[in-house]
């Protein structure tokens, strides 16, 4: 079912002749369909928290609630507003990454510093619910954009925290192999992901379980952002997972992106 879209156009050319133009517009049509899907997805993702927020507002307005009850509603409203804010922030991050076609800069980024920042954030987010193991196995550093690298790594760590049930374990590792290639990896003992989903995880808004992702505060854009950042550093995202056992997300950097 290889659907090929052709566009035919005829132009008068001389007295009895026509110029027939046949164009392969398959890619153009695909890009257009993707853009339409994306706009529909964004609209849907925004509409849900707005609708919920309006529902809460109406309730507070129309019912004579006790102060404590009112506070509960305000908290739920804040959660919906935060959800919209994260979505808009992730959309902006993605738009900026997509607009920037240049490779990431060549700044030296201390791996130790990144690991320390990640550890702090991870512990704050998990609040003691997970057993962490942070390993910096190499004194080599990364070459790239510090803010982007931190954002990619912390997306992977926060996914591990959000999807791994309490008392699960999470290993975060930076290592460099004999050929000088670097690898940052996050391995969790969470629910794992069935193989049929793996190749689609980095698509914008693709989720294995929609409600679970939303409940944990996910925007559905995290892995799309990670993939973009990796590719700006000529790196690759590798995902391995065994349902029921856990998942491992690794970003592999070429030796040009690893330094003393
Ligand atoms: P989300 O905001 O939904 O987490 P992501 O792009 O970060 O969006 O991830 C896409 C989907 O990949 C998630 O909805 C989830 O189904 C799956 N996923 C990501 N990380 C993990 C993980 N560590 N364990 C299990 N599933 C995961």
TrEMBL record:
<keyword id="KW-0813">Transport</keyword>
<dbReference type="GO" id="GO:0005886">
    <property type="term" value="C:plasma membrane"/>
</dbReference>
<dbReference type="GO" id="GO:0005524">
    <property type="term" value="F:ATP binding"/>
</dbReference>
<feature type="domain" description="Histidine kinase">
    <location>
        <begin position="41"/>
        <end position="257"/>
    </location>
</feature>
<keyword id="KW-1003">Cell membrane</keyword>
<keyword id="KW-0067">ATP-binding</keyword>
<dbReference type="GO" id="GO:0004721">
    <property type="term" value="F:phosphoprotein phosphatase activity"/>
</dbReference>
<keyword id="KW-0418">Kinase</keyword>
<protein>
    <recommendedName>
        <fullName>Phosphate regulon sensor protein PhoR</fullName>
        <ecNumber>2.7.13.3</ecNumber>
    </recommendedName>
</protein>
<keyword id="KW-0812">Transmembrane</keyword>
<dbReference type="GO" id="GO:0006817">
    <property type="term" value="P:phosphate ion transport"/>
</dbReference>
<dbReference type="GO" id="GO:0000155">
    <property type="term" value="F:phosphorelay sensor kinase activity"/>
</dbReference>
<keyword id="KW-1133">Transmembrane helix</keyword>
<keyword id="KW-0808">Transferase</keyword>
<keyword id="KW-0175">Coiled coil</keyword>
<dbReference type="GO" id="GO:0016036">
    <property type="term" value="P:cellular response to phosphate starvation"/>
</dbReference>
<keyword id="KW-0547">Nucleotide-binding</keyword>
<keyword id="KW-0592">Phosphate transport</keyword>
<keyword id="KW-0472">Membrane</keyword>
<keyword id="KW-0902">Two-component regulatory system</keyword>
<comment type="function">
    <text>Member of the two-component regulatory system PhoR/PhoB involved in the phosphate regulon genes expression. PhoR may function as a membrane-associated protein kinase that phosphorylates PhoB in response to environmental signals.</text>
</comment>
<keyword id="KW-0597">Phosphoprotein</keyword>
